[in-house]
Design a protein that fits this description.
The chain has 343 residues and is of the alpha/beta class. The protein has helices at residues 3-8, 60-67, 90-99, 107-110, 117-127, 134-147, 164-176, 194-211, 222-228, 246-251, 256-263, 304-308, and strands at 9-24, 29-45, 49-53, 75-80, 83-84, 100-103, 182-186, 214-219, 231-236, 239-245, 314-316, 319-321. Strand 11 and strand 12 (319-321) form a beta hairpin.
Amino acid sequence: MNSGSRDSALLSVEGLRTWFPIRQGLFRRTVGWVQAVTDIDLDVPAGTTVALVGESGCGKTTAGRSILRLEQVQAGRIVFDGVDLCALSPAELLPYRRQMQIVFQDPMASLNPRMRIRDTIAEGMRSFGIGATNAERTQRVAHLLERVQLDPMQMWRYPHEFSGGQRQRICIARALAVDPRLIVCDEAVSALDVSIQAQILNLLADLQDELGLAYLFITHDLGVVRYLADRVAVMYLGQIVESGPTEQIFSSPQHPYTQALLAAVPSADPGRRSGAPPVSGDVPSPSSPPPGCRFHTRCPHVTERCRREMPQPVSLDDRVIRCFLASPGGGAAEGAGQGGENP
């Protein structure tokens, strides 16, 4: 993104790296690393939705958890409202945890089956000193349930007494209970039926308009992205390969991986179908990523340079592309005619 956007971002991630050690032997020596997230940059302006998309296993969830400091970060900066969270001690980080919440993919797994919904939602309030008495917290829980379109009297029930969509609404209410400014939605609608997905997405959009929330929406569903997101960041094997405004990404994708993802989306309108070639082969292991461009083993436009060198992010107007073939005049595939070869 341009510097002006970065300066005004509520969340600005710079060079984030999260690797997990591979340990073997009696003494559990480190013999390698799973390179889950490698040097990603990402901005989330206040009041907007940024979608982080890619195939399963590309590092999306690890990136989201790292931003919330739920995973140990090896390098980079996570700047929230002008403060580098990576430089804070656990005690100093506590006030910022209130401002950044998460909604997980599986609502049943993220709710304590032995706690009533009232206690689940009020738990964060007690931790951060919200509400002077239990009666005040109970009143706030009732208000939150109404806000997510549930009956306040249901607060005395247990999670198993709700449907999947209702449980996800409860998880959203729990996130809202501490007045966050940023919510990370980790595949928050992927486990729900399509009709329920639409209801939850509409609810999230209404809450954003009402409360000015920022969302980092982690998903593999490009239909959801087009409906909800202001900006898109496309992730492949731990790196962001393209990012920019949603409509630009969908109308003129520059990176071959982005083109392939969009080409795979079903469309009833032949005019909207992409002519990009499909991606073949399997995703390489993040414990031994290929040299050079990480996408070169599956790219239909690979060149020898792609095999040797790692492309650096290139800024084109309001988007960033990590590809040697990106050009201001068109998609990456347009520049692949000269010198391109199949793997």
